[in-house]
Amino acid sequence: MNKFKVIVGLLILGLGGAIYVLYRNHTLLYQLSNTVVGDYLVSIRRAMGPPSDFIVYNLPGCLWSIAYILIIDGLFVNLSFRTLAFISCVIPMAGVLSELLQAIHIIPGHYDSVDLILYLLPYLLFIGMRKICQTR
């Protein structure tokens, strides 16, 4: 196990979750967190000011994709490249599938091609870097 990758992955997961909890006010997670620590979250939001739509709506999914890949890579250090590539694609591909299903109105939500790219990009970079390192 590579503890550093797992810890960094958990920190990135937490950052994506914090953005989601602080600014996605139409979600159940936001409402629950407001119930538990309400005034504290309001003061944090006020102190930080309004973020861009990219940060609120696109970045969390990308951060979660990165976090998952890092955690999987950190936990399973002895896997073959193919197995690691397959396991590490689960969350990014779930995000892609979710966006595609939103595009054809099978699941609720707003299709966003930026989300699609940001789910895929970390996985493609990870696989590309792994392949480059493997050939050296």
Give a structural overview.
The chain is built from six helices and no strands. Helix content is 81%, strand content 0%. With 136 residues, it is mainly α. The model has no long low-confidence stretch (mean pLDDT 87).
Q: How are the elements arranged and paired?
A:
Layout: H1 3-23, H2 28-48, H3 53-75, H4 81-88, H5 90-103, H6 113-135
What does the average pLDDT come to?
Answer: 87
Task: List low-confidence stretches.
Answer: none
Number of beta-strand segments:
0
* Helix-strand pattern: HHHHHH
Count of helical regions: 6
The percent range for helix content is: over 70%
- Approximately what portion of the residues adopt beta-strand conformation? under 5%
Q: Shape, please?
A: globular
Give a short account of the largest sheet: none
Radius of gyration: 17 Å
Return the structural class: mainly alpha
Q: Give the N-terminus to C-terminus distance in angstroms.
A: 22 Å
